[in-house]
Design a protein that fits this description.
With about 120 residues, the chain is mostly beta strands. About 0% of the residues lie in helices and about 55% in strands. It is built from no helices and eleven strands. The strands form two sheets. Strands 2, 4, 5, 6, 9, 10 and 11 form a seven-stranded mixed sheet that branches. Strands 1-3-8-7 form a four-stranded antiparallel sheet, with no helix packed on it. Strand 4 and strand 5 form a beta hairpin. The radius of gyration is 13 Å and the shape is globular.
C-alpha cells in the first residue's frame, strides 16, 4: 500500500534551520508530484510547497525565500529545507501525494520554533 513517512522535525530557535524528509513507498515515486502542507496550532491547514514530476517547484508566499522543496527520485524522497525559521512556522508538517484520485498523507512531523 501507499505509505509516506516524514522525519526531521524538532525544536529550533528562531533563525535556525531544519530539513524535513518524506520517504514514499507503494507507488512509482517519480510519476507523482509531491506536496508539503502544515497544520498550525490554531488548526489551520496551509499549503507550503510543491515539487512537480519534472522537478519544478513552487512555495507559498509566507515561506518564499526561506523554504526550498526538492526531490530525489533514486531515494523515493522529497525534502523541505527550512531556513530562517520564525515562531509562526510552528506547525505539524505533512507530505501529500495523489495517486489514482486518492489522497495520501504522511503521519506528520512537529516543528516548533522558539522566539
Amino acid at each position: 500500500q501507499v505509505q509516506l513517512v516524514e522525519s526531521g522535525g524538532g525544536l529550533v530557535q528562531a533563525g535556525g534551520s531544519l530539513r524535513l524528509s518524506c520517504v514514499v513507498s507503494g507507488v512509482i515515486f517519480s510519476s507523482h508530484s509531491m506536496g508539503w502542507y502544515r497544520t498550525t496550532p490554531s488548526n489551520q491547514r496551509e499549503w507550503v510547497a510543491t515539487v512537480s514530476i519534472g522537478g519544478s517547484t513552487s512555495v507559498a508566499d509566507s515561506v518564499q525565500g526561506r523554504f526550498t522543496v526538492s526531490r530525489d527520485n533514486a531515494k523515493n524522497t522529497t525534502y523541505l529545507q527550512m531556513n530562517s525559521l520564525k515562531p509562526e512556522d510552528t506547525a505539524v508538517y505533512y507530505c501529500r501525494l495523489i495517486h489514482n484520485v486518492n489522497i495520501y498523507w504522511g503521519q506528520g512531523t512537529q516543528v516548533t520554533v522558539s522566539s
